[in-house]
Amino acid sequence: MEAAGTAAAGSRRAARERVGALERVGLLPISMRRAVALVWTTSRPLALSLAFITLVCGILPAAAAWLAMRMMDAVLAASQTHSEASRALALWYLCAETGVMAVLAAAQRAQTVAESMLRAQLSQRVQVMILEKTLRLELPHFEDSDLHNQLNLLMGQAASRPYQLVTRTFELVRNTLSLLMFGGLLLHFSPWIVVVLVAAAVPAFVSESWFAGRAFQLYRRQLPFIGLKQYLQTVLTREDHAKEILLFQLGRRLLDKFTSISERLISEEHDLVLRRGAWGWLLSLLSVLAFLGACVWIVYETMGGRSTMGEMTMYLLIFKQGQASAMASLHCVSRLHEDNLYLAELYKFLDHPIAEPQGGVTLGAHPGDGIRFQNVSFTYPDAERAAVFGVSLHLRPGEKLALVGENGSGKTTLIKLMTRLYRPQSGQILLDGTDLRDWDLCVLRRRIGVIFQDYVRYQMAVGENVGAGDEPHFDDEARWREAARMGLAAPFIERLPSAYQTRLGTWFEEGVELSGGQWQKIALSRAFMRRDADVMVLDEPTAAMDAAAEAAVFQHVRQMAPHQMAVLISHRFSTVRMAEQIVVLQEGRVIEHGSHEALLDRNGHYAHLFRLQAEGYR
Questions:
Q1: Half-sphere exposure for 122 (CA within 13 Å, toward CB)
Q2: Residue-range domains of the chain with CATH
């Protein structure tokens, strides 16, 4: 019974592999069509040029072989008859052969030039396609590990894979054309020799198709490890990881892990490559035997007077070239199967469904109502409990709201819900009486200025770092200066080598690195760029600043326009107490809500945290 079960399982596995091979063969025309479409959308002149060059390079080798045959027969006739007509004919065929070879050489050089021009354009085209799709992704997409790994892999291979895919597609078409032309010439000798030519290539085709499928499956299986390998490489080479790697002496451990993964991947690939090479060599012997058999047959027919010397030379030449074209075609098919994996992943990513923004509202139903959370709940994918649950609060125009709670209590999640980076699973968030889902996304985000605790340190000029906070005024230097003043960054910016034109970070030449507090002031200035925002969101905006700077920042916050609302997250109660409303969160729920004085009088969780912090200053 066990043996029978094992045999049945093996039979099913073999059947799946046969079906998989058929599916991959069926996908090959789709891959080729998509490859040609990529070239067409990248550069129509190059697409047409490559199509014409492919046609020329596919036909001319057979024409050259036919002319060589005619020339040899003419030369033999001239040597026997010594007639001027035979000599002139031989010379004409020689000139024609020379012309064909010259055109073929020019076409091959033109192909090299066209492919070189295509390489950069196609790489840039695919990268733009990927990045354009990325711009339409929402925050949850970036937090999806599968999609994140897929994006990294696509960008990592965007410079080479599409080019290889396209060149192999045209190479397959060229070799197939040549093979058809050679086959047509061989038919004049015997249809059976064409059968021999094709039959000798079939076992190699089956082998290459099978191994291509194995390579496809291996790559699929290795994807998570390839992603981990790329991550470890990033950790070991990025300057924002370098401090901890050096101080904690993690470099060797991480490098050993990187090496272990690399060796495992290489070992699996080597095993497949060795088996593929061994079978390829064994099956190539069939081609050698087929050629030797064809040679004997053609020579025997020539000695019997049924073929001329020129025809014998041509048949031997085109049979050998036909075999070369057949093997080159098989190689292209094999590699195209592997390239098809990239193309399949590319179009899978490009076709990934993204819900189009449905909202179009630009003015709320109740202007001046502010922001309302009504019984809002949200759970992260695969999380066991809700990040926020049943939250209700109301922030009116001009009010300042502080969110207080331990790490993981849901403070930053509320901010992401307010900015529509996430969508609540239940409840509503209203701005001026209208659900955030119904707002035009661009209009909504223009009304909100944000600085997150994990703000971005752009490796760009100071002014561009600040201007990033208000894209329509990205290059407005007057706004840079005013925002930097409010964010307390102006004094140290003026001391930089080129002031607002100084490049920040160390990735590029002449870049200047800042302290943590200075970077935070740059990020804070970025938030102040958005003057017309109705809501200012400050998530731990002064964690790296001293007490005096913190007090100055919140003095600016209090002086904002009367209608502007502010949402503040901070662990410093000297800052929190300035807010009109304080919301205390615990495990995603609102447990207390009120002013600083009211919460102290209540003597609850907030009062306990306040006294603990106050004790630390005594």
A1: 27
A2: 30-350 (1.20.1560.10), 371-616 (3.40.50.300)
Query: SS3 for 40?
Result: helix
β-sheet bridge partners, residue 393: 373
The span from the CA of 463 to the CA of 481, in Å, is 8
Number of H helices, E strands in the chain: 20, 10
* Most confident of the following: 38-47, 177-186, 445-454, 480-489: 480-489
Residue 272 is encoded by which pair of tokens? 């497949």
User: With bands split at pLDDT 50, 70 and 90, how would you rate the model's confidence at 571?
Assistant: confident
Q: Rounded to an integer, what distance in angstroms lies between the CA atom of residue 437 and that of residue 361?
A: 9
| Helix/strand/coil for 434 | strand
The beta-strand segments (E) located in 324-424 are 371-378, 388-395, 400-405
Tens digit of pLDDT for each residue in 439-476? Answer: 888 888 888 888 887 788 888 888 888 888 888 888 88
Mean pLDDT value across residues 20-42? 63
Q: Which two tokens stand for residue 22?
A: 């058929």
Tens of pLDDT along 477-518? 888 898 888 888 888 888 888 888 888 887 777 778 888 788
Among 350, 36, 338, which Cα is nearest to 161's? Answer: 338
Q: State the burial class of residue 473 (Cβ atoms within 10 Å of its Cβ: 0-12, 13-18, 19+).
A: middle
Partners of 376 in the β-ladder: 391
Classify 458 as helix, strand or coil. Answer: coil
Structure tokens at 79: 């040597």
Are 370 and 394 in contact by the 8 Å Cβ rule? The answer is yes
CA distances from 558 to 151, 482, 500, 523, 536 (A): 43, 17, 27, 19, 11
352-375 mean pLDDT: 82
Task: Provide the mean pLDDT of the chain.
Answer: 78
pLDDT of residue 279: 82
Asked if the model's pLDDT at residue 618 lies above 60, the reply is no
Q: Residue 603 has what DSSP assignment? A: T
Separation CA 576–CA 562 (nearest Å): 19
DSSP H helices, 136-190, are 139-142, 145-157, 161-186
Q: Which pLDDT band holds residue 562 (cuts at 50, 70, 90)? A: low
DSSP string, 77-113: HHHHH--HHHHHHHHHHHHHHHHHHHHHHHHHHHHHH
SS3 227: helix
Torsion of CA 144, 147, 151, 152, to 10 degrees: 60
Closest CA to 183 of 170, 195, 172, 173: 195
Hey, which residues does 374 pair with through a beta bridge?
428
Q: Which H or E run contains 592?
A: strand 589-594
Contacts of 196 (CB under 8 A, 6+ apart): 290, 293, 294
Strand order in the sheet with 589-594: 448-451, 535-539, 565-569, 400-405, 581-586, 589-594
| Beta bridge mates, 431 | 371, 434
- Percent of the chain at pLDDT > 70 equals 88
